[in-house]
Design a protein that fits this description.
three-stranded mixed β-sheet, Helicase, Ruva Protein, domain 3, GMP Synthetase, Chain A, domain 3, 4 domains, binds adenosine-5'-diphosphate, Rossmann fold, 10% strand, single chain, alpha/beta, globular, binds magnesium ion
Length: 462
Amino acid sequence: MIDKIKSGWEKIITFLRDDYELSPVSFNTWIKPMIPTSIEKDSRGNFTLIITVPSTPFKTYVTKKYSLSLAVAIEEITFIRCNVVFKEKKEQESKKVQKKLIDNKRHPVNDLKLLSSNLNPAYTFDTFVVGKSNDLAHATAIAVAESPGSQNPGEHYNPFFIYGGVGLGKTHLMHSIAHYILEHNPDANILYVSSEKFLNEYIDALKNSNLAEYRAKYRNVDVLLIDDIQFIGGKDAIQEELFHTFNALYEQKKQIILSSDKPPMELKNLEERLRSRFAWGVAVEIFSPDFETRMAILRSKEERDGKNIDNEVIQFIATNIKSNIRMLEGALNKLYAMSRLNKNQEIDIDLAKSVLKDMITPDAPTKITSEYIATVVADHFNITVAELKAKGRKEPVATARHITVYLCRKMTNDTQTKIGQFLGDRDHSTIVNSEDVITKRITADSELNQTIETIKKKISPQ
Ligand code: ADP
Ligand code: MG
């Protein structure tokens, strides 16, 4: 049976590529390296196909993104119905990327260069703690840093797009790539900007009639990093400008790195031609950190700050502050400050509980209610809860509403009737229908599946 899959593999992945309209980049990056390895049969007679992939982050990503669609493609071509499971190559192999980073020759980067590139000296790979929530983003960032602008097959990460919630390390990771490139090529011309700065400088250039200078600045770099790109949504002139800047850089094989709160295709108030270009390369998500990563980040900061804090205190913070790394760091800073104010009072669990009480609500994890789910879904789609509850059926509101119903059913104990009342007094059958729509679509539509997974993580980090 495995032979049939192996011999049909080219056909299977070609089917997958065509049916799911994968870009050549996604195809080369994620599908080509897969190796169908063996097939197993369980006691109930179900088959599982084991596919070998290069690394753990790779596995995390493709499991989420491609396991369903691959199973469909396999059945379509070979008539074999099976689940798909990915296994990474041996440990040694997957550590290779990390090791390369340490082994490489590095030059110190001079301060002037950092200043002119707008780089924060503290944001480097060395200070970036890697955990389950960010390992794929980190591994891809290293790959980009090692071969910026590359258009070689399997190494084509242009643009590199990092997305995820506030305070999860997007900016830190972008700066890390820039540092790494400068350490290995001190002459590289690198420019990091917030999208706000990119926009404001454009407005100034328009006012002072020096657009030529503005364009020269942004189009003659080796690496351009623009942070929080969602903020240029709805602003036409700057989108036009960015479109041409993007094309100019891309044609010269210069690396473009972008960040945003959502994946490219979900940036609905961005022009289609920009959205589709942003998706040409690789887009990776950073998730909220799990407990182990939160502990590691706190320990790493404590060490850098030259402190030695009681484990109980670190655990207390990691247990109670979950969603955001900026807040984790803020909690430690607040403790330091309070201790200093009180004549270097010892930082113990009692001090931590009293100082941090307004940042956390111990023993009361955020309760997942239908109201809360609606807020997160609305926020994800950039619409209001009022729109979710209103009568209209326009997109993306209709899809957002279906997803809200689906998640309320999955994540709360509310009845269909109760959800209907809450969602603008809709009747029972409408709610049943919404739930059905998503349940049916989710198996075939990996894009939708991905969106729902992202929203679930926003609702319940960890
Ligand atoms: P974002 O851009 O996603 O809002 P930032 O990159 O500004 O988040 O990160 C917020 C803070 O958390 C920064 O001080 C950053 O150094 C720190 N931080 C984020 N991720 C990590 C990490 N993995 N390891 C260490 N520090 C981190
Ligand atoms: Mg940021």
